[in-house]
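FORM 7B: Structural annotation worksheet

SECTION A. Query
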Amino acid sequence: MIARELKYRVDVAGQRFIWQADRPLSAAVELVVAHPDLGDITVPLTIVATEGEVTAIADDRRTLTLAAPVASSAGLQGTRWGVGFLVTDEDAAFPVVIKRLSGTTVVLADALPSDIALAQSGRLIWATHTAELPVGTVLSAAHRDLTWRVSYTAADGDDTPTEALRALGLMHVVAQPFDTGLTTQTLVGLFPRICKPIPRGQEGWEPQIQAAEAMLIEMIRATLLPADKWEDDIPASQRLQVAHAHLTASLILLEQDIDRAETMRERAEKLANDVLRRVWVDQDGDLDPTDGGDDEHLGGVPRETRGSAFYGTATSRTFTSDRWW
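SECTION B. Predicted structure
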């Protein structure tokens, strides 16, 4: 998954925190959210599936045989739910992505290296942990820059030394998270020659879409932060979908044609700038631009920030909760 700031809607049930471990874990883990009003909020995380015992690796190096089917594992494939590790006594932990899971047969997105052996049995361990965020605490009120942490102990093999590690990040609880609505289907429809075929190991262009969204947000913040506003204060964020699509296409083109990628990036910047020249900003959080309580933001991207925001230019901000780094 692409590392990014997490966003959730205030006071809406059913929203999930999803975290993927970078190593196999030796014990269960918890999410801790530092809340400015409520203090530390602890939420237990649950791994999406129990581990499976691997008894054989086929000649294609992609197909694994399990000793028994993994219970409650329907749909746990792909880069969102099917990331995991193959752990053997001879090779420790090797990261994998599960492409297909049917009974005792597992098909990986990519072939395993030829030197990974299976003298005895191995273990297939899922990396994804999740929890539904409680509405009464974490999602009870709007807050920006809530810091979260997951403390965990990594164990690459039964006899390897354990390590105490910690994952850290930011989450925002807002009335309406910024979302252009861009999907793989929309992107392929706009740029079929650029976006086909989808690379092996990916179900779609979601990683590139997420990366382009982060870059687009940095551009928007360069415009709105001087007024102490954020991208989530723009209810009509779908107006930026075409700019988002062009920016995503520029990332895809980087590995094909760097000149075309630069042209596409410049086009994305122009499209975004045209939209940002006249957008209204939700001042009172009711998502209604007709009630007289909202300002209209005039002007495009500040000249001194143009061209740099797409490369991750940092913006200053005021944090509202304790941090651990």
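SECTION C. Observations
DSSP finds six helices and 16 strands in the chain. The chain has a mean pLDDT of 84.

SECTION D. Sign-off
Analyst initials: ____
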